[in-house]
Design a protein that fits this description.
Radius of gyration: 31 Å
Number of helices: 15
Strand content: 15-25%
Shape: elongated
Structural class: alpha+beta
Number of strands: 13
Order of helices and strands: HHHEEEEHEEHEEEHEHEEHEHHHHHHH
Distance between the termini: 28 Å
Oligomer: single chain
Length: 411
């Protein structure tokens, strides 16, 4: 039998325990643990949700790594072409962890309607393009058919469709710059076959998806010339590593950059958000720990006569300290249980109900994203339990100062 655990259970189960002076303090400490783990779960899940949603949207529009000509100078428009025949296309054979390599070419243009106009970036892609991202955010219609000899079908965003009052099967007029033509401008009349809405306004308000052959015709490129290559990797956590490997594997005439390098402001913002989550976790654990220390000290002072009796019967100090540490651990576990139930319930409501809305102009998402991961929840609970327990070891040292003769005398 575990002697210390037995006594701790008797204290917890005793009627006097619930009606004692320490009862309100114990309840406050339990509530502090409950609120602490709830806030931590929400902070971690929302922080992780933001990171995953934004980086998935970034990679959906731009790939994880872009390989382009040095002459493009980080421009959104493909200024200089690259030969499609490359040693890394259609497959990276000397770099592991690559999911897909796809060609693209961007062209700036202006959509004209009877009453309005809008500047856009026409992103030309091919049949090798991974449309998984756009399938997820496709609101109406379908994807373009790349099996057609002359594919005039395009995807537009809900943002563009709303501003220009466009709908499915509309034939729109786009004016492109065409310096190599006899005229300075060239016109195309593509057909809207799909409307997507990612909530990422930075790209939604300008990006059209169509056939790369249209860009090749506008730029007077042959079918073997493209604007660049987008590389999708299996694990985003390996982005920096794979970016270096890809850069080392491509010809010296080409340049490659990860989306984190191309859009540092967005990813720096995500890093700051990540730091804020750690600050919240630290504050919540500290507050919960202080409340538990207070509760433990009150419990010890309330049971000082019992401590004296146990010492008189020969129990060592550490054995008696374990009684109260078991008691405190029970309170921590109780608070963790309630906190997990409340926190997970609130997160599940937001994940599936999407009640809390955000301005996509500022946050790149239209609702608060939630990422519920079992491993994160388990680690957060274990970490909170261990840290709070360690914070209680030192205060329990007060038991060594209690004298049996004095504590029993006033019993």
């Amino acid at each position: 039998m575990n002697f210390e655990l037995f006594i701790a259970k008797r204290i917890i189960a005793g009627k006097g325990y619930k009606n004692s002076i320490s009862s309100p303090i114990i309840k406050i400490a339990t509530i502090a643990i409950t609120l602490g783990i709830t806030v931590m779960l929400i902070a971690v899940s929302i922080g992780s949700g933001f990171q995953k949603k934004i980086r998935d949207k970034m990679s959906g529009f731009k790939g994880h790594v872009q390989i382009v000509n040095y002459d493009n100078n980080n421009s959104e428009v493909s200024l200089a072409s690259i030969e499609k025949a490359q040693p890394f296309y259609p497959e990276f054979k000397n770099v592991e962890g690559i999911k897909n390599v796809q060609v693209f070419a961007n062209k700036f243009g202006v959509i004209r309607t009877e009453k309005d106009f809008e500047g856009i970036v026409f992103k030309g892609v091919s049949s090798d393009y991974d449309f998984t991202f756009f399938k997820e955010y496709l609101k109406e219609g379908r994807l373009p058919n790349f099996s057609l000899n002359r594919n005039k079908e395009i995807l537009i965003s809900q943002s563009i469709a709303d501003r220009l009052h466009l709908k499915l099967q509309d034939t729109i007029q786009i004016v492109f710059s065409a310096e190599k033509h006899k005229n300075k401008f060239a016109q195309r009349k593509p057909i809207v076959v799909g409307i997507y809405n990612t909530g990422f306004e930075q790209f939604d308000k300008t990006m059209l998806i169509g056939d790369i052959r249209e860009v090749q015709r506008l730029n007077k490129w042959n079918e073997n010339e493209v604007g660049g290559f987008e590389v999708l990797i299996d694990d985003f956590d390996d982005l920096a590593l794979k970016g270096d490997e890809i850069y080392s594997s491509i010809p010296v005439t080409l340049n490659s950059a990860t989306i984190a390098e191309n859009y540092p402001l967005i990813f720096n913002w995500l890093n700051i958000l990540d730091n804020n989550v750690w600050v919240i976790i630290g504050i919540m654990i500290l507050v919960a720990g202080i409340n538990m220390v207070t509760a433990l000290l009150v419990l010890i002072l309330e049971q000082v006569q019992m401590v004296g009796v146990l010492k008189a019967l020969g129990s060592p100090n550490w054995s008696i300290r374990k009684v109260f540490l078991y008691n405190a651990s029970y309170l921590i576990l109780k608070g963790l249980l309630y906190g997990n139930i409340i926190g997970i319930a609130l997160l599940a409501i937001q994940k599936y109900g999407k009640f809390i809305k955000l301005d996509p102009e500022n946050y790149y998402v239209s609702t608060v994203p939630v990422s519920l991961e079992a491993l994160s929840i388990i680690l957060l609970n274990i970490g909170t339990l261990i840290l709070c327990f360690l914070m209680l070891i030192i205060p329990s040292y007060i038991i060594t100062k209690i004298k049996p003769s004095k504590s029993i005398k006033f019993a």
